[in-house]
Amino acid sequence: MENHRIEKLNATFKDYSLEQAFEKLVTLGFSKMAFSTSFGQEDQIIADVIFKNDYPIEVFTLDTGRLFEATYKVFEDTQTKYQKKITTYFPERHAVESLINEKGPYSFYDSVENRKECCEIRKVNPLQKALKGVDLWITGLRASQSTARNEIKIFGYDAAFGLPKFNPLAHWELSTVENYLQEKQVPQNSLHKEGFVSIGCAPCTRAVQEGEDIRSGRWWWEESKKECGLHYNKKI
Ligand code: SF4
User: What's the number of domains the chain is made of?
Assistant: First the structure.
């Protein structure tokens, strides 16, 4: 999608409520829209809107094989509440076997390269598979989640995946997210109550202290930008 169209869409959508944004989105003529969820707070809001309104959007998740038990619980609770399917994509078996057999189960703690290798195998490659044939990728990204995300707009273009992105919560604050979840009784990951904000794989996520960057609990042993390759592009 060219920049001009993205700018126009951002101007059109800037004052829409979440519901209005989705109502408009489905009239835009995308042929295959997909929403990637990791069952975080923002993702749960988007799932709530898609499932309640039965929008023609595929909802999928990536099972890295290293998720928290609590994440599977909210996955199950979500499917049960809405009676809708969430498609799961797994890493390629031989790639995981080779990684573990060659480097052991915790190679990601040894170097940034090793960590990126694991994320590539368990997340990025399955995401590529999930996004095949998709012409709009929907995410729960918010600008105030971290300094690396502060340029996020409602519509963007992900050059790495060659796809336009729709980030309907781009300008939401965490308090608005929490209020929505509370008000609408949306299932949530129980780890949020224990100080976990951004929740990924179990060995690579820890709780954060009040006032800390939301992403600081991810790959906390690294100094570099806290992204895994799913949303690392500056143009999000
Ligand atoms: S977050 Fe950690 S366990 Fe998960 S894919 Fe990345 S390096 Fe591997």
Answer: 1
